Structure formats: C-alpha cells, structure tokens
Amino acid sequence: MTRIEHLAFRQDVVSTRARADPHLTNWPVVYVIDGFSRSRKAPDLYVGETVNAHKRLLQHLKGPKRAARLDTIHVVIDERFNKSVCLDLEAHLIRWFSGDARFQVLNSNAGLASDAQYYDRERYRTSFRNVFEQLRAEGLFTQSISSIENSDMFKLSPFKALNPDQNVAVDNILKALLRDLRHDKSGSTLVVQGGPGTGKTIVAIFLMKLLADIAAHIPGDDFEQDSLFADYFLDGDRQPLAGLRTALVIPQQSLRRSVQRVFAKTPRLDPKTVLSPFQLAESASEYDLVFVDEAHRLGQRANQASGSQNKKFSNINEKLFGRDDRTFTQLDWIRARSSHQILLVDELQSVRPHDIGPETLQRTLRAAKDGDRHFHLMTQMRVKADADYIGFVRAALRGEDPPRPDLGDYDLRFFDDLGEMRAAIRDAEQRFGLSRLVAGFAWDWVTKRRKNKKLVADFDIEIDGVRLLWNTTDKDWISSASAADEVGSIHTVQGYDLNYAGVIIGPDLRLDPATGAIVADRERYRDKKGKETTGSFAGGFTDEQLLVFVRNVYGVLLTRGMLGTYVYVCDPALRERLRTVFSD
C-alpha cells in the first residue's frame, strides 16, 4: 500500500506534477530530497513531512534549500498515513540516514518528534521497515537497519529522539544558559547529573547541534513550529548564540574518536571542536561554552600515561595560573579556558584515584544546586528492563541482598562456566551484533609487552582453561574487527552501549570469609594507574576507598547491555553469594 513518487527538485516540475496529484496537495506524506556528490564531500539530504507537499516543496525551492546541493524528491505516500505516523516516520528516517552516514542530513534536530505513543504505533513502525527497504533499493541507504542501529554513528547521533525527561532537561538548560550568556559575564557552571543509560552524552551532542542550528537559522527557513524548542529560533534567543565558540571535552580517547566521526558527518558540527582536556588547555582559542562529557573522568595531578604528558600537565599549569600547583585539576583548566561550562557527571562512575577527587565533585554539585544550575536525568534508557535494574546492580555490589526486580524480557543470566558464557556471547553476536566480553582489571595486560619484537605471551586471561586476550586496541575497540574475540576493559566501554555484555567479575572483588563482606583485593587489582597515590589520594588510600573504585568499575560494566547481561564471578565464595541475587 506504500508507494514512492519521484520528482526532480525543480520549480517547473513541482508546480505541474505535484499540483496534479491529490496526495501531494492534501494528504499527510513524508518526503526525502537528496543530491549527488559534486566533490569529495558527502551529498546532502533533507527529510520532511507535510499535508501539502506541493506547497511545502515550492517553499523549499524559494528558501535556503534552493542553495543546497539537492536534486531528487522521493515522496512516501500511503493511504493509511496520518500526521502522527508521518512525524514518527520522518524522525526514523532522519536517524537512519544519520546513522548510515552516506549523506549529510541537513535537518535541524529541534523539530524531531519525541518517542510519543499513537494509535496502532507498532503496526505502523513495522511498515517503516518496508519504506526503508524501498529507499535502500533506490540506493539511498548502504547498510541494513540492524547494522545502522548497532553503529556509533546512530547511537551518538544528534538526531536522537529525546525522552520526556531529556526534553525537559534540554529546555531548562537552554533557559539557564541563555540567561547566563546575557547577564552573567563572570561565567557559570551548569551540571547535568545522571546514572548509566540516562543519556548524558546524547544530551550534550543534541545541545551542541541545537545551539548551532539556532545560531545559523535564517528567518524564513523552515523549522517545526510545534517543537518544544521552536521559540529559541526567534531573534531574541538567536542573538546571544551567534558566533558562540563551543567545544566538547571528552576525557576517554575511544569515546572521543567516535564522537569526532559523528561530528565529521553532521552539518554545523566540527570534529575539531571535540577535544581532550590537554588539547583544550593547550589551544590558542578561548571558548564561550565548553561541554564536558564524563566529567567525573577529568584528571587531577597524577602520573600520566607518558613522560611528555607529565611535562604537559606542569606546563599547562604554569601557562594558565602562573605556577605549577599540584592542587590544580583539569576542571580548573576548563574553567580557565572558557566562560561557561556544562558538566555531565555521574560520580559513581569514577574508576581511578587520579580521576577528579570526590570532594571536588561534591563541591561542584553543591554550587550548581545552590545556583539553580543543576539538572538531573532520571530515566535510564539503555537497559531494556525495569527502572530499578541500576539500583539493583549497585546494591548487589555493595553486598546487600536486593530482591531481583521485574526485568521483563531483559536477559540476565548467571554462569558457572566461563566457556559457556563465552559461547552464549558469541551466539548473541551472531543474532544481534554488538555483544562483547568485558572484565574488571584483574589481570595484567601481558600481550602488550614485547621482547625482541615477539609477544611474551599469546593470552592475558586464563580461567578454567579458557584463554582470552585483552582488547588489542584502545581506539573504538567495540566496533573493531577483533572485538568479538577479545575482552574489553573499563577504559574501552565506558560511555558506550552494547546489546549483550558478558561481564567477568575478576578476583579483584571477593568475599571475605571472616566477615562475609564483599571486599577489594588490592593484590589482584592490576590497573597500575588505579593503584597510584596521587592528587587527593597522595597520602595513600584505604582498602575501603579502593573498593569504591572497583565497585564503580563493575557497576559500569554491568549496565552496558541493552538487551541482556551475562555474569561470571571468579571468586568461588562471591560466586555463591551473587548467584542468589542474580539468578532467577
């Protein structure tokens, strides 16, 4: 029942052909306008919905779209369509095109429909896949839906549909930011706090795209009048955003690389503005606004990954503050280089002593709350289970005996045999993709060391006769070709989604037979950077403080899987303790 009409993106064609078709003058439709590449740059594409395609397309031909590199119109027509269906299909196509990355999607993200319910939604959404396949047959898509939806380009897209919680947060952040840009010349710090899966990274990327679109908006250009963010496109709000110098700081290298690729394919977003804390501090630019994703992973003074970075830390302090005071942190750098900051934080995801100190985080959170610049994301969207799953996992790691919540179809399984869990993850990889083994840092990365250009060993982890390798790359490991046969550490998966996570709880977490408490085993904890006494831990840290970091590591790993989490525990006593919690 669905058909696609094709027209040239020319005024004479639209004026004659579209006017003659009643479905193009008085019927809800979705349309795609695409172009072909005239350079090394990806071709442009625009997706829209309307009840009068004839009128709407003429408006495009008279407006800013006329200057875009667009050639062909594809109008999706179906007798069953209504306004709600078209808004939903438009949003799906925008997200799929963005994730496929063949085209540069010209749409603003301000008008994207939220994930709203409407009559018979699931049946309509099934039909969307047929629309996708018709457009794919015409060459508009290069990948399948499953491949697109498993990609970083899709998961980190600025065209994600925000949930109601995120919509309210973005609206309130915009109001506070505009107020600060107009009136607070001394600068401000806004804090967005949320647990795993609440979409902190998505909110940051969405906001950067929205701010860029508002600043670049030309009066008369199209935007969704009914959008929650429509009023921000008016003159009074566009003016403070015009020329705004923004950057996005991401401490983790792997996640930073993934976001840079997304920005490179998104109009008005520049991959050069996605920086490490070092790059921002060393930049010659001063910034009006800096977003900091995973701000709890910003560093304090510590032994860096290389001698050159140790020198850089000292030089940056000298440059910015006139002295190398060991109390200065990377958060101080960001505040020195920018007037306004938006920090995205979950203090329960700090995993090393040289992450910014808990006192600094708490002080920052209190100041934001006192200044009405604190925004809380409450709804977790990653794990397809009851909202209590995150709390359940954290309570179990604290040694409590929480009741297993109603997980619905979520696949939480406990394994006694690592080989069986590995086979189950491989099966999930075949069926769903994006299924990985992950583990706490309880084994040395011996394959990283080389002697006479030969590996010292050909495996890092051995459990019950199963030999495994740590991740062979720390740059976008999750999407790498070898990832399905390796084990990812906390430093390769934090900030990412998986479909299935097979979590190995290593011997760095065990049950104390004398007390029955869950404790950290300092000897079996092998993250060398995690053992260094530095910053606010320069005087050393207790076993209880180490336990906090180790619990946070496993709290992150156990909340990566969207469809399921498989668990294997190395310590026999802890295995028996957690079996009663995690098993049905």
Automatic annotation (TrEMBL):
SMART domains: AAA. InterPro entries: AAA+_ATPase, GIY-YIG_endonuc, P-loop_NTPase, SLFN_3-like_DNA/RNA_helicase. It comes from the Bacteria. Residues 26-105 form the GIY-YIG domain. This is Type III restriction enzyme, res subunit.
